[in-house]
C-alpha cells in the first residue's frame, strides 16, 4: 500500500494543529503584558497609586513591583486558573470524543474557546480581573479537552512569532492588552470553519460506530484512492484487542497492585515535568529577566520562544534515536545544572554586572533541556507502559496530575519568589536532582519494546511480587470493570 500526502490529509493535520497552537498562545500570552495588566487590576481594585504614576510620566509599571497583596493574588490567579480548567476537563475527554466523535466534539468545545476569547477581549469594558480570570478558566477547560481530542502533536508551547505581538508598541500596551488576550479565541474560529470540510476519524467510525463503509470513504478522502483493506484489518485487530480487555475504571486502577508501579512512574514523570519549574519560566519569564537585570526583558522572553521552537524540532529527531529514558535523564540533569547557574547569576548580579548574561544563558539552556526530553516524553510514555484496558484511566490521572501541578506553580511561584528572592530556583534544582535520580533508578527504557516486555520489567522491579494466583485474580477483576 502506497500512502500519499493528499490535500485533505494536509488540511486535517493543519486543522488539528490549530488546537495545539491555541494552547501555546494561551499559555504564554499573559506573560509579556504582565505589568500593564497589573496596573489595570490595581485601578479596578482601587489601589493604584496615581500620584506615583504621574511623577514617573504616567507609567508606574515599568520598573515598579505591585505592592498591594490583592493585585499579586488576582494576577497569580489569572495565570494559574488556566490549569484548573485543564484539570477538570482531563476526566471528560473520553466522554466527549466517544459521544459525538472527534469532528463534532472539537466543534462543540470551540464554543468554549470563543467564549473565553470574548470575555478577555471585552475585559477592559468591565471588571478586568474578574473577566480575565473567568476567560482563562474557560480557556483552560477548552485546552484540556482539545489536547485529548486531537492527536498528540507536541508543538512549541509559547510560539515566538505570537509573543512578538505582545511587544509594547504592538498589542502589549495600555490601549490594546485586552485585544492581545482576546485573540486567544481566534484560532478556534478558523478551526471551526475548517472542521466543516474535514472527514471524521476513520478509527472512530470503524471501532466506535462499526460503520465500515464510511470508514473506508474517510480513509480514501485522507489518503487518496487506494486499497483500504490493510488499514481496515489493522483497525479490526485493534477493535478485537480492545474487546478482550475491558476498560478499567480510575478507582480500580488506583486500588490495583498489578499496575501500581506503572502508575507511580507515570505520575512521577508528570510531576517532574511541572515541578521542574518550566512554567515559572513560561508564565513569569518577563519579570524573571527583569529581576536578572536584563535591559529589555520582553525581547529576552521572545528569545525563550525561539529556543523553544528550535529544540522542540530537535526532540522530534532525537526521541526515537536516543530513547525516552536517556533523553529524560539528560534533560532533567541539564535543567538541574541550569537552575543552579540561574541562582548564582541572580545572587551575584549586584556584584558582577556580567552575571545578568549568565542568568539569561542559563534560562535559555533550561528551556532547551526541557524540550529535548522532560517536555514531550511524559505525555506519550503513559500510553507505552499501559495496555488498552487501564490506558484511558491512566491518561486521565496523569493529565489531572499535570494540570494540578501546573496550577500550583502558576499560583504560588510569585509568593515563593518573594520568600526566597534570588535563591528561588534552588528549590527547583533540588527537585530536579531528585527526579533525575528517580528516573535513573525506576523508569525503564520503552523505545523499541512491546508492552509485554515493558510490563515484565515492572514486575521484576516490584519489591514484593504477587503470587501467580493473586495476580491472575486481580487481572480478572480489572478486566471485568467498566470505564470510569
Walk me through what this model shows:
There is one protein chain. The chain folds into two domains: 7-198, Up-down Bundle (Growth Hormone, Chain: A); 247-478, MFS general substrate transporter like domains (Growth Hormone, Chain: A), CATH 1.20.1250. It is built from 23 helices and no strands. The chain has helices at 7-28, 34-45, 50-55, 69-89, 93-121, 128-149, 160-163, 177-182, 186-195, 202-208, 212-223, 229-244, 250-255, 260-274, 278-291, 297-322, 324-347, 355-372, 377-385, 391-420, 424-442, 451-461, 468-479. Helix 2 packs across helix 4 (69-89), helix 4 (69-89) runs parallel beside helix 6 and helix 10 (202-208) runs antiparallel to helix 11. Mean pLDDT is 83; it is low at 152-156 and 477-484.
How many domains in all?
A: 2
User: Quick check: average pLDDT?
Assistant: 83
Radius of gyration: 24 Å
How many strand units?
Answer: 0
> What is the rounded distance between the termini?
38 Å
Strand content: under 5%
Structural class: mainly alpha
- From the 3D structure, determine the CATH topology of the largest domain: Growth Hormone, Chain: A
| CATH architecture type of the largest domain | Up-down Bundle
Low-confidence stretches: 152-156, 477-484
Silhouette: globular
Q: What is the string of SSEs from the N terminus onward?
A: HHHHHHHHHHHHHHHHHHHHHHH
Amino acid at each position: 500500500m502506497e500512502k500519499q500526502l493528499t490535500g485533505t490529509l494536509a488540511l486535517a493535520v493543519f486543522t488539528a494543529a490549530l488546537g495545539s497552537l491555541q494552547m501555546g498562545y494561551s499559555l504564554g500570552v499573559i506573560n509579556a503584558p504582565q505589568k500593564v495588566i497589573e496596573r489595570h487590576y490595581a485601578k479596578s481594585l482601587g489601589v493604584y497609586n496615581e500620584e506615583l504614576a504621574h511623577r514617573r510620566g504616567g507609567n508606574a509599571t515599568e520598573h515598579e513591583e505591585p505592592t498591594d497583596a490583592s493585585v499579586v493574588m488576582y494576577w497569580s490567579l489569572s495565570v494559574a486558573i488556566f490549569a484548573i480548567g485543564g484539570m477538570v476537563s482531563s476526566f471528560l475527554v473520553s466522554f466527549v470524543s466517544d459521544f459525538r466523535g472527534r469532528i463534532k466534539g472539537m466543534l462543540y468545545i470551540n464554543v468554549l474557546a470563543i467564549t473565553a476569547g470574548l470575555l478577555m477581549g471585552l475585559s477592559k469594558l468591565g471588571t478586568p480581573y474578574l473577566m480575565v480570570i473567568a476567560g482563562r478558566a474557560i480557556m483552560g477547560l477548552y485546552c484540556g479537552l482539545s489536547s485529548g481530542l486531537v492527536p498528540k502533536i507536541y508543538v512549541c508551547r509559547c510560539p515566538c512569532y505570537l509573543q512578538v505581538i505582545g511587544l509594547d508598541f504592538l498589542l502589549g500596551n495600555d490601549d490594546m492588552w485586552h485585544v492581545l488576550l482576546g485573540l486567544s479565541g481566534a484560532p478556534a474560529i478558523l478551526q471551526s470553519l475548517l472542521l466543516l470540510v474535514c472527514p471524521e476519524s476513520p478509527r472512530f467510525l470503524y471501532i466506535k460506530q462499526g460503520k465500515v463503509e464510511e470508514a473506508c470513504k474517510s480513509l480514501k478522502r485522507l489518503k487518496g484512492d487506494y486499497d483500504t483493506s490493510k488499514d481496515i484489518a489493522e483497525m479490526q485487530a485493534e477493535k478485537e484487542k480492545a474487546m478482550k480487555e475491558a476498560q478499567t475504571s480510575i478507582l480500580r486502577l488506583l486500588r490495583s497492585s498489578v499496575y501500581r508501579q506503572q502508575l507511580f512512574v507515570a505520575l512521577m514523570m508528570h510531576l517532574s515535568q511541572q515541578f521542574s519549574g518550566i512554567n515559572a519560566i513560561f508564565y513569569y519569564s518577563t519579570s524573571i529577566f527583569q529581576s536578572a537585570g536584563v535591559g529589555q526583558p520582553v525581547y529576552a522572553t521572545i528569545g525563550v520562544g525561539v529556543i523553544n521552537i528550535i529544540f522542540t524540532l530537535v526532540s522530534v529527531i532525537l526521541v526515537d534515536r536516543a530513547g525516552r529514558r536517556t533523553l529524560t535523564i539528560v534533560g532533567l540533569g541539564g535543567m538541574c545544572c541550569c537552575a543552579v547557574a540561574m541562582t548564582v547569576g541572580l545572587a551575584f548580579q549586584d556584584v558582577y554586572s556580567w552575571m545578568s548574561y549568565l542568568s539569561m544563558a542559563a534560562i535559555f539552556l533550561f528551556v532547551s533541556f526541557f524540550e529535548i526530553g522532560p517536555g514531550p516524553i511524559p505525555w506519550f510514555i503513559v500510553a507505552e507502559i499501559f495496555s488498552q484496558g487501564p490506558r484511558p484511566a491512566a491518561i486521565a490521572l496523569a493529565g489531572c496530575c499535570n494540570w494540578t501541578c501546573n496550577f500550583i506553580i502558576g499560583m504560588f511561584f510569585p509568593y515563593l519568589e518573594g520568600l526566597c528572592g534570588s535563591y528561588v530556583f534552588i528549590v527547583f534544582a533540588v527537585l530536579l536532582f531528585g527526579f533525575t535520580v528517580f528516573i535513573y533508578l525506576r523508569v525503564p527504557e520503552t523505545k523499541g519494546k512491546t508492552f509485554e516486555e515493558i510490563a515484565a520489567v515492572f514486575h521484576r522491579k516490584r519489591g514484593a511480587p504477587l503470587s501467580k494466583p493473586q495476580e491472575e485474580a486481580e487481572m480478572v477483576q480489572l478486566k471485568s470493570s467498566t470505564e470510569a
